[in-house]
Specification:
D-Maltodextrin-Binding Protein, domain 2; 2 domains; ten-stranded mixed β-sheet; 12 helices; 10 strands; 35% helix
Length: 337
């Protein structure tokens, strides 16, 4: 279940609208894109406060918005660190928005999951699929495949994040495209799929929508396994994670140290903590696959879908995928939105 694609460099993360200014409150460290409802960041920030005495306010930007804000503030940085999808991390490095720095356990992170210079490194990974609130399906069956989502039974029941801004949105597009016969050079299958979802009144959101799925407002969300498992095992109601029959992809999430971070020394302590034994075990118990090659606790591993299902998750060259994002985003905006 470890991503094996080689991550190449790239130059520009283009096509993003600048996020509105949102001055951070006084804090010890500022993290962009540390949303409390995503990957259990809310509890992680609490643990950091308890264990390190470092206060980090939650932040609900997505990866694209985080980068846009860092660009807007480049002359006078506000953020110290940013949590990004690997494609956005590659882009941030290419635009000289982050500084090279290696946490203490950097060498233990597998090759392909880190920038050799230390401009970004993986903290955990997830696999893209369908996060389903079974009780909100209005009698429709739990879908098994990407193709099912185009059926009339799912009219108005499906949502996905905007692929032109949010990392999970673009990962959804890559997953659909590769699973339906496309390539990183040809996104026609994804465009055709999302056109069909638009006709089926799909919901498009820009922010993580965990709470909206739990409440039943969104019955089916293209999202990661870790969010679905969190709901399934911690929330009231019936929830499921579906790894579509046609296949999917796994995706790393990375940390970066912002260039000229105002609290760099304190921020480095936080970054080390995220890769500590306690930090990596935390991610595992949040149903993510840690970056370091540690054993998944058996009680957590038993809650995942079988390994035979995860075998359908394809390896991706996320450097090449990032290079393809601008053209795909332009096509998506022209043909789908």
């Amino acid at each position: 279940m470890m991503l094996k694609g080689t991550l190449a460099s790239l130059a520009v993360f283009a096509g993003l609208a600048l996020a509105p200014a949102n001055p951070a409150k006084a804090a010890d460290v500022i993290c962009y894109n540390c949303p409390p409802e995503w990957a259990n960041w809310g509890q992680m920030l609490t643990d950091i406060k308890t264990d390190l005495g470092i206060d980090i306010p939650a932040d609900n930007k997505n990866s694209g918005q985080a980068i846009a804000q860092i660009i807007a503030e480049k002359a006078s940085p506000v953020a110290d660190i940013a949590y990004l999808g690997v494609n956005a991390g590659i882009a941030a490095a290419g635009q000289d928005l982050v500084q090279a720095w290696k946490p203490g356990r950097f060498d233990a992170i597998p090759e392909g999951l880190k920038d050799p210079q230390g401009r970004w490194w993986t903290v955990h990974q997830g696999t893209l699929g369908l996060f389903v609130n079974v009780d909100a399906l209005n009698g429709a069956p739990v879908p098994a495949c990407w193709a099912d989502l185009k059926k009339p039974a799912y009219d108005g029941l499906v949502a996905y994040l905007d692929p032109t801004s949010a990392a999970v949105g673009y990962v959804s597009s890559v997953a659909v495209n590769l699973s339906l016969g496309g390539s990183l050079d040809d996104f026609t299958p994804a465009i055709t799929f999302f056109k069909a979802l638009a006709k089926n009144n799909a919901i498009v959101t820009k922010q993580t929508s965990y709470a909206r799925v739990v409440s039943g407002e969104i019955p089916i969300l293209l999202d990661y396994d870790f969010n679905a498992y969190r709901a399934k095992y911690t929330e009231k109601g019936r929830f499921a994670f579906v790894l579509p029959c046609e296949g999917s992809v796994s995706f790393p999430y990375v940390m970066t140290l912002v260039k000229n971070a105002p609290h760099a020394e304190t921020a480095q302590k936080v970054l080390d903590y995220l890769l500590s034994d306690k930090g990596q075990a935390f991610w595992a118990r949040a149903y993510l696959r840690p970056a370091l090659p540690i054993a998944m606790p058996q009680d957590i591993a038993d809650k995942f879908l079988p390994a035979s299902d995860y075998a359908r998750a394809k390896a991706v060259d996320w450097g090449k995928a990032q290079s393809a994002q601008k053209a795909y985003s332009e096509r998506y905006l022209a043909e789908v939105r």
